[in-house]
């Protein structure tokens, strides 16, 4: 039996409760009943006490009037404390019944046409004479207290005697239930929940800007914090504030992906708030005249020597020869743990006042995924962030054991993290399957990223074949899922991430790679990989969180 409002039906009196009890006891398995059904047409708002759908017959609308009911030859009367009050139950249920039938028949899911449809009045506390009859209400249309035990049988008789309309089968009962549930309703979708979470995160992150007010009089600061603590927000906001105050500012990072994000973000600001330079550290050197160097993705002894020794030496010399107008009042560095020792010298040399110019560093030591131990050769005032704002609690609980610090989790609730056990060799195939599942669940391509910890996904290889610019443009393509590697995704995020743990051997920075990958999604995380490998790299707490 299809029962609407069954768990907690709300009735205004015991008479309606008595009718509800009779209906639920007597209706068959494939019948339908809804209580307190409202319907609105252009004339008025209606409320029907009960709508009953009888499998094999049709629909009956019931108007229930409790207490002592009488009729004086002109109108119905209901006894109340203040005396007899005129009522009009027959016309009331007649108008409501027609309004509901019109609504149901106009529902695009309704394919039954005109089915048997009628209405009755029910008086659970009143006994009517056997010969009662009114032109608008013959005896069979009024059910009194002596007939409640056979209520559904009488409703069937009402429809059986009708000539207009056709019987309604099980499909009609299902369509009636669907129509009364409404259509085109806003759903509690994964995307709606993610957008609400994003609004909360934005509000919390904005509150972090109070830190920038606290360091307003300091010009050498290092802000440290785990994943999701709002470091990048603070870095760009600091660059904006310094630029707005009239300073010439460089906003610098190491990776192509983060630089692409920073450039897009700052390009939307008013001109006076835009930093003078936004981008990668080595691209800044190229602007000064440094050599472009070998492909940094191919790590050979020669390429490592160029990027970590030769290039910064060139940049330091070029920085010393910069004209005053091309120097900076302040340099803001995001993901500063990626910087090598030698990179700090050209940063300092590029300042208009090398001893006093502003240097603002934002870092997370647990995300040191490159084999560099560079630390600023400067006296910096440390500020520690310990509030995770970005990730849902379920995601943050997975990676906090890898963060190296305790964090308060303020990101709210979300879906549980999904672990898909598989071999490293199968991780990419399983990850592809999970991307399809997330799309089927309601996520849009622009909400999703697939990240790898080992070899790159073939789709990433293909896109990178078109060059770095074209590849990172795909990050902003709303029609595509983004495919990347955890090394290039630091500082970035997506609403939902599928992480393919496709490494087979634990290396020096494998734990840090895993930490980066786990912390990139804001709302939903799926991990595909070998449980034993993840337990070995991430530890028992992570394994327990993932259920492996």
* Oligomeric state of this protein: single chain
Which runs of at least 5 residues are low in confidence (pLDDT < 50)? none
Number of strands: 22
Task: Name the strands of the widest sheet in spatial order.
Answer: 1-2-3-4-8-9
N-C termini distance: 42 Å
Cα-based radius of gyration, to the nearest Å: 35 Å
Q: Which geometry do the CA atoms define?
A: elongated
Number of helices: 18
What portion of residues is helical?
Answer: 25-40%
Q: Estimate the strand proportion.
A: 15-25%
The overall average pLDDT, rounded, is 90
Largest sheet: 6 strands, mixed
Outline of this structure?
By secondary structure, the chain is α/β, with parallel strands linked by helices.
């Amino acid at each position: 039996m299809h029962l609407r409002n069954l768990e907690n039906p709300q009735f205004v009196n015991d008479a309606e409760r008595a009718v509800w009890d009779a209906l639920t006891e007597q209706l068959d398995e494939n019948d339908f009943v809804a209580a307190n059904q409202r319907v609105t047409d252009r004339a008025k708002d209606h409320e029907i006490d009960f709508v009953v759908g009888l499998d094999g017959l049709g629909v009956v609308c019931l108007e229930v009037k409790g207490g002592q009911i009488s009729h004086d030859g002109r109108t119905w009367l209901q006894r109340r404390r203040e005396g007899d009050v005129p009522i009009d139950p027959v016309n009331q249920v007649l108008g409501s019944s027609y309004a509901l039938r019109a609504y149901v028949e106009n529902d695009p899911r309704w394919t039954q046409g005109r089915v048997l449809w009628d209405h009755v009045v029910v008086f659970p506390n009143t006994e009517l004479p056997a010969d009662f009859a009114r032109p608008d209400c013959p005896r069979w249309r009024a059910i009194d207290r002596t007939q409640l035990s056979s209520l559904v049988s009488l409703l069937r008789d009402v429809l059986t005697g009708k000539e207009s309309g056709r019987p309604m089968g099980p499909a009609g009962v299902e369509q009636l239930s669907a129509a009364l549930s409404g259509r085109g309703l806003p759903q509690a979708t994964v995307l709606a929940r993610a957008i609400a979470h994003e609004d909360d995160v934005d509000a919390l992150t904005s509150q972090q800007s109070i830190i920038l007010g606290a360091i307003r009089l300091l010009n050498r600061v290092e802000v440290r914090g785990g994943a999701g603590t709002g470091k990048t927000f603070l870095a760009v906001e600091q660059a904006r504030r310094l630029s707005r105050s009239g300073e010439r500012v460089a906003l610098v990072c190491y990776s192509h992906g983060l630089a692409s994000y920073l450039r897009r973000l700052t390009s939307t600001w008013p001109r006076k708030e835009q930093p003078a330079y936004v981008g990668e550290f080595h691209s800044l050197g190229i602007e000064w005249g440094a050599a472009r160097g070998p492909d940094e993705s191919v790590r050979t002894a020669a390429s490592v020597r160029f990027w970590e020794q030769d290039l910064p030496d060139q940049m330091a010399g070029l920085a010393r020869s910069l004209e005053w107008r091309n120097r900076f009042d302040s340099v803001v560095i995001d993901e500063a743990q990626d910087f090598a020792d030698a990179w700090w010298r050209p940063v300092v040399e590029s300042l208009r006042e090398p001893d006093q110019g502003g240097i603002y560093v934002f870092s997370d030591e647990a995300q040191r995924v490159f084999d560099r131990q560079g630390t600023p050769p400067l006296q910096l005032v440390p500020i520690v962030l310990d509030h995770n704002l970005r990730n849902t609690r379920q995601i943050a609980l997975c990676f906090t054991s890898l963060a190296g610090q305790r964090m308060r989790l303020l990101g709210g609730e979300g879906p549980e993290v999904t672990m898909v056990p598989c071999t490293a060799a199968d991780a990419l195939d399983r990850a592809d399957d999970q991307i399809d599942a997330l799309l089927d669940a309601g996520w849009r391509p622009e909400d999703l990223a697939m990240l790898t910890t080992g070899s790159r996904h073939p789709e990433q290889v293909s896109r990178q074949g078109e060059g770095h610019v074209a590849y990172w443009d795909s990050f902003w393509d709303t029609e595509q899922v983004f495919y990347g590697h955890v090394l290039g995704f630091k500082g970035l995020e997506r609403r939902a991430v599928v992480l393919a743990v496709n490494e087979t051997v634990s290396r020096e920075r494998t734990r840090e790679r895993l930490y980066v990958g786990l912390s990139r999604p804001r709302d939903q995380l799926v991990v595909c990989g070998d449980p034993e490998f993840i337990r070995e790299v991430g530890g028992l707490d992570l394994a327990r969180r993932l259920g492996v």
